[in-house]
Design a protein that fits this description.
5-stranded antiparallel β-sheet, about 230 residues, two-stranded antiparallel sheet, alpha+beta
Amino acid sequence: MAQESSSALLHGAVQPRYGEVHIRNRGRLPHWEKEEGLYFLTFHLADSLPHSVLAKIAECHHILTTAKQNNANLLPDQKELLASYSHTRIEEYFDRGVGSCAFNDHRIAGAMAAALRFREGKHYRLLAWCIMPNHVHVVVRLFPGQELAKVIKAWKNFSAKAANQALGRKGQFWQREYYDRLIRNGDEFDRAIRYVVENPAKAGLKDWTWVWSAGWEARATAGQEAGATSS
């Protein structure tokens, strides 16, 4: 592939201008959303993180947001807290396989994969996804008019219904919150794709089936204009 600038290759993966990003607060975490945004997403099962850990993560987000708004430096104890609950540390916690790990059941993992693919090409473009035993990673670009929260809600609702039916159970299947990161350039995009594809092996899952990416066409696919409309 000829060398081109990341912003030219990746539609939506550019530094947002003022007013383009909307910050929504739902539950514990803020969510940064942009029309036709390109995202790296993580969402996890209800029992994969204790509520105490979720509360600490929310506290970390509050500390960072407050410091940025006030142009203030972090205190030593705040830096220590942030280091303890960094994205890397949380991902390591996920990869230990805490909780029921429902996606070890191929029926349930298959339902999750079907949910991701259902509106592919209509509401969004999938670039990579990985269904781990107790959480899911997705790299996706939304089509015009699509809202991130609604897309994720549809994925969760479909998979939760299928899982509860398969397991003969009721109750909460997913944690309410999800983690989203707007991808701003080609380097971030490459890192996100690599992380998703390599996550099973990094977690010690041998011959793991539930991982996919657009491969060598990932960048080109990310940059395609979205001609689809809502249905």
